[in-house]
Structure formats: structure tokens, C-alpha cells
Write a structure and sequence with these properties.
alpha/beta, binds threonylcarbamoyladenylate, binds magnesium ion, four-stranded parallel sheet, 312 residues
Amino acid sequence: MRITIEKAVSLLKDHGNVAVPTETVYGLAASLFCPEAIQQIFKLKGRPSSNPLIIHLSCKEEIEPFVETVPPGFSELADAFWPGPMTLVLDILAEKIPNSVRAGLPTAAFRIPQHPIAQQLLKKSGPLVMPSANLSGTPSATTPEHVESDFGQEFPVLDGGACRMGLESTILIYQNERWHIIRQGALPGSAFKKVLGYIPKVKGNENPEKPLCPGQLFRHYAPQTKLILSKDCSVLEDQTILGFTDRHYPDSCRLISLGSLSNPDEVAENIYGILRFLDDEKQEVVYVDVDFPKRGILATIFERLNKAAAGC
Ligand code: TXA
Ligand code: MG
């Protein structure tokens, strides 16, 4: 059900949940100050309670009440990339943020989204927690239709059309005097060099008991369709290939296109919609062309395809 910003504000104040467009993906919002609505997010999504939520704010000044100090480089990153598709994990004053939001961690993740509807809403609603608006483990939602397909036609959605970027925010944490990427996202690592003087390294969850990014431990982005990653699609016969319009595939194969490799932004915008389309078409097995350079945003796209395939 499509709703107005005024209706969204009143639902959120009244302990409800609404879906909100951002420039990355749609978010499933609850007010930071409504514990019931936060619990409902975990229930609606089927999300493990050990997976914390990102706190969304309308401007960087709103972070101040939640933190004592910020790490070096924080202001530079904030000024360069907010509002936008960057999330920063910060040490916080624990009593200021409900345990359920940060899964008991001494940190919380913050993002200032750029989308005009998200901005207008946040100015009126105050801080919102927003995971991606999809059932846990499945491809994220980048249109109102995706949200309605997961949560039903009656679920309240602010209609911002299709998300411009189509991949989640890049998440960074500061450790051992450096920023590290703990979830690749819409901003490639190279984007941070001009601000930090170095490209932050991608850091995985080396210790699953104490994960840097708990969400990365779980099944993600996976359609029902079994995905098989292929470095050489030229050997395939009579298969369906998830590939690119500027590539040639065997004549006996059917191409489902992610877009053109020469336009990675287009591929990013399409990826979750196409993964959902595979399920709409009830495809059983699809080969995925991953013979492309893992640079820039294509590195994030490769990571998403890997996770989507691992979930099968
Ligand atoms: O683009 C985005 O980031 C979207 C839009 C809606 O803003 N949100 C999003 O939320 O992708 P979600 O819940 O799907 O992914 C958030 C990720 C999870 O992997 C979670 O574990 C991680 O952020 N996270 C949240 N708080 C954290 C914390 N304190 N420390 C480390 N990772 C954290
Ligand atoms: Mg998600």
C-alpha cells in the first residue's frame, strides 16, 4: 500500500513499520525509540537477533548524542560521502542505543541516506533503524513491488520508484589506526583514497565468535534458483546464462541479462531485480558469467553473486 510521508511519520510514531526508499535499496523502518517496532522488524524479516541494524539519521550532527568520541578521519569521510551510500561503525555510549539494535555490541552503525524521500522522512521522524526491506537471506528490494512481494500488498510503502544505485551502502570500521571495509557496497574501496590517502582493505569475519560485521555470517541475496558461477560460459550447451549484453554466449544458451559490463552502474541497479526475476520464472538452475574484472563496483557485484550462489 503506497502511503504519504505524513502517514509514514504517524505510523512510525505509533510503533509501526514502513518501507522507505533510499538511493541504495529499500529499507524496513522502525523508530529507534520504539522497541516493539524494532522487534517487529526481526519478526517480519525472519532476521536473527544477533544481526544488528543500521541507524539512519538526517544529518551528521545527529550522531553527537550517541558517541563520546569519533575516530580520526570520521569528519572527512562524513563530509565527503554523507548524505550517501556509506555506513560507519562507531563506538557508542551503550545506554543511548537499545541492545536489540546493536545485537549487544559496544558499537553501532550509522548512515545518512541521500534519497530525497528518506531525507524528508528522517527530518520529521527522527532516527530510524532500517535493514534492507526483504525477507532475510533473499535478494534485497529495489522497487516498491519487491517490498510488496515480500511483505504483502497491504504493507505500507513510501514509493520512491526504483533505487538509483541498487546495492547496499559500503560499511567501514576504524581499527588499528586504519579504516577497513567490512561490507563491500555501492561505494568502491578506491572512492575513499582521496579522503583517507589509502584504499581501505576489505576485512572478513576472521573470528566468527566475534564477527566484525555479523550480517556477513548469514545466508544472503539468494534466490530459490540454483546459481552456478562460471568462469567460462563458452563451454555451456542448452543452459540459461545470467550474463551481459556485451558478451557473446553459445547460440544454444538463453541469456538473461544483468546489463552491459561496460556500464557497471547499470548492472548494480539491475542485480536484485534480476535475481528475483529468476524465481518469478521458476528457473531451476542458471549459470552466472563471472569472467569479469573484479574492480570498482564490479568487485561488489562479484561478492553479491558469490553470496547469492552460496545460499543455494
Ligand atoms: O544501504 C544500506 O545499508 C541499506 C539501506 C536500507 O540503508 N541497509 C542495509 O541494512 O543494508 P541490512 O540490515 O540489510 O545490513 C546491515 C549490515 C548487516 O550486515 C549488519 O550485520 C551490519 O550492517 N551492522 C549493523 N550494525 C553493525 C555494527 N555495530 N557492527 C558491525 N556491523 C554492523
Ligand atoms: Mg540486507
